[in-house]
Write a structure and sequence with these properties.
three-stranded mixed sheet, alpha/beta, 2 helices
């Protein structure tokens, strides 16, 4: 599994040479149009792959997450390069829950795709009303992020 350099071959034995463009450039984080231009300039065929959310915010919308050749083996002129593009963050509207029963509010927030924390023991939830959330309802937050719910008990 060497690279073939310094190897001995039989006289007149066929030798296959593979032309490769070498390693692909690092285009992660670049705007997608610039990445397509750079790949095309190298004689490659860029194709947009599946768009993906990047919830940590590290790759803005319409920027490159990664590139990879279609298939295995060396990258030859004209090869198809799959460009995975960011959709940005998966933002979801935070339900406005202030003034609602705590148990209903927690269910609504979980159904919207959020994790929740709250300031009351579970045994008091049937008697509690939401006074606020952080971040506030009506805005947006990344799906899967945590919403802190503050409630009060009315007896």
């Amino acid at each position: 599994e060497g690279n073939g350099l310094g190897e001995t071959y039989f006289e007149k034995a066929p030798i296959t040479l593979v032309l490769s463009l070498g390693s692909l450039p690092d285009l992660a984080g670049d705007p997608v149009d610039e990445a397509f231009a750079a790949l095309s300039e190298l004689g490659l065929t860029p194709v947009e792959g599946e768009r993906q959310f990047v919830n940590d915010g590290s790759v803005p919308v319409d920027h490159v997450i990664s590139i990879a050749p279609e298939g295995e083996g060396p990258v030859r002129p004209g090869a198809t390069i799959i460009v995975t593009v960011s959709q940005g963050q998966d933002l979801v509207e935070i339900p406005a829950t202030a003034g609602t029963p705590m148990a209903e509010a927690l269910d609504a927030l979980r159904e919207a795709g959020f994790e929740v924390t709250y300031n009351l023991p579970d045994a008091f939830l049937p008697f509690a009303t939401v006074t606020s959330t952080n971040p506030e309802g009506g805005g947006q937050a990344v799906r899967g992020s945590t919403i802190a719910v503050v409630g009060t008990i009315t007896l």
